[in-house]
């Protein structure tokens, strides 16, 4: 399911990342790749969407989060 | 080495944003910093020099970067520096509490083939979080010295210096530029040795899918420095890497291999390669560190819950900004007064070297031109320094990243990134540092749009104009609202113009929000002061060069040509006799006649047909010309036009003269035109420098002037129709 569907506190693993190569490399540089486990730290309504990846906190736009498939 | 007695080492400090790189750089170099000047590097990088025995170390603080794939201008600077300036040694600052992500850059640097010393910064935070790292093992695995440090407590600095000296003494004995690096395939560790420029080096094995494609690409890459790194980047179809290949045939062949790779493997190189790196890193981290898992939420997460709240985030941010601005102006004003009287004193003292009443061009140049012009700009230094300090605090604590996130929702509506908000905010202080702050934006498009609209944020130098005009034309109860209206006009126009530029010149997708949230930290006073001072110094240098030059030119335009001594002067009263210019008594009236005769006065008259529809006459036009040098010069200039000696924004005499000649509507039009029209010379210079072309600076100046004309025209004509012109 898309990442933005995961509730706060939920833990998931990235399956695939849609979107262009620019986006994929930016996410990769921040440590977010297929196979990476992540935790949804904040996901409330229209506010910012924050995930924990490899010990750091990353803010992801909702549009982008919907293109990241996780399980 | 040409001279064994004194050797120079060029050392670059690299690392992720928020890894504490700049703090460490400050610890190493102290206040001995200057802006480094490197060809091809458009963005200023800080450089410090350090003497250690017969070693002279030139230490360069590179902008923070997550990888050597450049996304923002700053990241490009870091990468271009490494590629083209060939540092002898790179200090890679790694946040020990966030080891995996930080080691990603380390693996790229190893692959890049540059000698490394790794600094494990914030090792105390790492231990608090239950992360224990075996420094000895990490050093062996990376084939580089590893120095643990706590930058914000100045621990590890001496050890790092020792490590540099040790590296220098033993560089020749080390096996290769990167030393030994253990490579990892799926489940196995293996070493791949390849020749690069005569140095054997070992690096990451990307596995059986990727390595054959890399070998194929390597055939087209001539033997050179950083060959392996370049080969990998070429498979990732990195546009900048392609430019490093001089031979067009080679470029074509490489592009073909990269395209075929995707088809053959059904995978993307830009996913497989980072995966390979992280695979290696995960193994490495597992081998050298021990993590005691802690599931509790960190303090940072708890603060963010409040600060980034859907509803409360914006009010909290606006309140903070309100305090920053109020404090900046409240604390800065006494110092402004001191600087002003200092320059007054200086002007009077220098005038004293000439006999009373003597008309010396040199005296006029020094006192009116240089001291008057540069002093007018330096008066704002206290405000600017305080604003820089506030920004340093907001950045150092980590709140700035949150501000960008909070504002992103609004900024994306006009097609800008949340990060654009920070430069716009700085623009209320001074446009020059604000344009420098656009460097953090990731796309050139976002950067240029932000730069173009930035002068619409009413800077501190416009304030004296408002301070003169508003009390002249508006009753007390209206003064506050009018000031507010002028600021809001600027903000609304900035957003509207950004939207317009986004829909016309800069079409395309919005840069999506993606950024790291650094943990909240308490910045050290020293790092805040150093940061404040280096930025203030840059501003001072601008004042000393560009503004000085502009002040001299403007002085000349305002004072030359002089009226001929026998020029007849029409009598003020019918009963008086016609005199000549030289017979006039010294004072305001004579100055005013001289100004009318000067280039500036003539241009002001020439502009009358163009600016009359806005309600302006030659007096205002001449003063507006002065505002091009620095906005606040308008006040001094209009004082000369009206023959009021020593005019400043508190001059009641000047105000009554303005009131007699113009309506409040024209007063408002003057303020609006001064706000919107062509930015000052310093802004022009910095826009040219930061956009990399004079074209953008010209477009900004002309575009804003056209906008100012149209908008002021509309305001004036509508005002006349509504009967406000009386």
Summarize the structure.
Chain A is of the alpha+beta class and about 70 residues long.
Overview of the structural elements:
The complex is a heterodimer of chains A (71) and B (726). Helices cover 18% and strands 38% of the residues of chain A. Chain A is an alpha+beta fold and 71 residues long. Chain A has a single domain, classed as Ferrous iron transport protein A (FeoA) (SH3 type barrels, Roll). Chain A has a five-stranded antiparallel sheet with strand order 4-3-2-1-5. The radius of gyration of chain A is 11 Å and the shape is globular. The model of chain A has no long low-confidence stretch (mean pLDDT 86). Chain B is an alpha/beta fold and 726 residues long. Chain B has a domain at 7-173: Rossmann fold. Helix content of chain B is 58%, strand content 10%. In chain B, the strands form five sheets. In chain B, strands 2-3-4-1-5-6-8 form a seven-stranded mixed sheet, with helices on both faces. Chain B has a two-stranded antiparallel sheet with strand order 7-13. In chain B, α3 links the parallel β5 (89-95) and β6 (116-121). The longest helix of chain B has 39 residues, at 313-351. Chain B is elongated, with a radius of gyration of 30 Å. Chain B starts with 6 loop residues before the first strand and ends in a 5-residue tail after the last helix. The interface between A and B is large, with 35 and 38 residues.
